[in-house]
Design a protein that fits this description.
Blueprint lengths: L4 E2 L9 E7 L5 E3 L2 E3 L1 H12 L5 E7 L5 H13 L5 E3 L2 E2 L8
Helix pairs in contact: 1-2
């Protein structure tokens, strides 16, 4: 998967992470399980009611349309999960330094 680059990174506090991956062809996974929007919603609702803090990390290939990522964000928010992050890779400066 080719993630978009970013010039900054922030430390993440200890939380439960739910990683949603969207491949270039649009297929979606929650962790290692292939899901559609309906199943994703059900699984995220279950996580939201399990107690504790859950961070939803969206790993979308940079070729995935923006609207698809927004849809996943909306599914998470509707499920009650508002801590959402977009996965990126650290953009390297000339000479190989981050």
């Amino acid at each position: 998967m080719k993630l978009p680059e970013a010039g900054s990174k922030l430390p993440v506090r200890e939380v439960t992470r739910a990683v949603v991956s969207i491949k270039a062809d649009g297929t979606m996974f929650l962790e290692d399980e292939r899901v559609d929007e309906g199943l994703l919603a059900k699984k995220l609702e279950k996580l939201a009611t399990s107690g504790g803090r859950t961070l939803v990390v969206i790993r979308a290939d940079k070729s995935v349309p923006h609207g698809r990522v927004v849809t996943v964000m909306d599914i998470a928010r509707t499920a009650g999960l508002t801590d959402i992050a977009i996965a990126t890779v650290l953009k390297m400066k000339p000479g190989g330094a981050p």
